[in-house]
Amino acid sequence: MKILITGASGNVGTGVLQALPPEHDIRLSDIAPPSSTSSTRAWFPADVREAHALDEAAQGVDIIVHTPAYHGIHMGAFSEKAFYDLNVTGTFEMFQTAVRQNVRRVVWLSSMSFFGDDFYAYTKKLGEQLCEFYNRKHGIEVIMPRPADFTPFRSRAHYGERLLHGGVDRRDVIQAVVKATTCEQSFGAYHIVREDRFTEADVAAYEQGKRLETWEKLYPGAAAIIEKYNFHMPESIHPAELTREKQELGYAPTYNFGTFIEEFTQDNTVIEVNS
C-alpha cells in the first residue's frame, strides 16, 4: 500500500514510520524538517493549513495517516485561532486533498480529550464531525483512534506517575494507529487507553480507602515506588471497556504501571536516562 504520513516529524508520525511494515510505500510530509529516521523516504514539505498543500504528496496514495495538531499541553502557548487553524482547517484541507486524489482511507488522530470542555476538545469534536461528513458524503473510510495522554514526559518518574492516572504509553498509541491502517472497519472512533485489570472487589477496596494496597495487589512492587516518589494516586479507578477496540481494531494494550516497574525500576528506584 501507499501511505502518506502527515506530521511525519512529530511524536506520532516518527513512531508510525518505524512501526509500519517495510513493504509499504511510505511518503512523509511535515512543515518541520525530516528526522534522521525518514531520510530514505519521499519527503514533501507542506503546511496542512494551506489549500492544495498535500496534493502532490497524496497522488496515488491509498491511506493518509493524519497526525498534525496542537494538544492540551499547548493551551496557553498558542491562541484559539492557532488551534483552529491547525486542528480544524488542517483537517479540512487534508480531506479536500483526499477527495481530489481518491484516497481510500484516512486514519485521523483524535483524542480522549474529545470528551472535555476546553478549546482543544472543541477542535477534536469539530475534527470528528469532518471525519463523519467525508465518510458519509464521499465514501472515504475513516478510523479515528482516541488516545489518552501520551505527550512526552519530563522524566521516567513522571511517566510512571502518569500511568496511575490517564496516561497511556506511546507504544500502545503507535500500534493502534498502525492497526487502523488495515482493520476491516470502514468508520469508527476507538478509545486508545491503558488497561488495568481491576476486579469489582479491587474497585470496592479502593473506594474504601485501600488505594496503595490495590495498586500493590495488581502490580507487585508498586507500593514501594509510589511511597518513595510520593506519587499522587487517583481518587477512583475504573477498568477500561475495550471490547470494541480489541475486536474491531485489533488493539492490544500492553503497557501499564506494572511494565513501568519491570522496565524502568531497580531495587525500588526509578532508573532515569542520565542516572
From TrEMBL:
Top-level division of the source organism's lineage: Bacteria
Entries under CDD domains matching the protein: SDR_e (cd08946)
Domain named NAD-dependent epimerase/dehydratase: residues: 3-149
Organism name: Paenibacillus taihuensis
UniProt cross-references to Gene3D superfamilies, sorted A to Z: NAD(P)-binding Rossmann-like Domain
InterPro entries, per the entry: Epimerase_deHydtase (IPR001509), Lipid_A_modif_metabolic_enz (IPR050177), NAD(P)-bd_dom_sf (IPR036291)
Name this polypeptide is given: Nucleoside-diphosphate-sugar epimerase
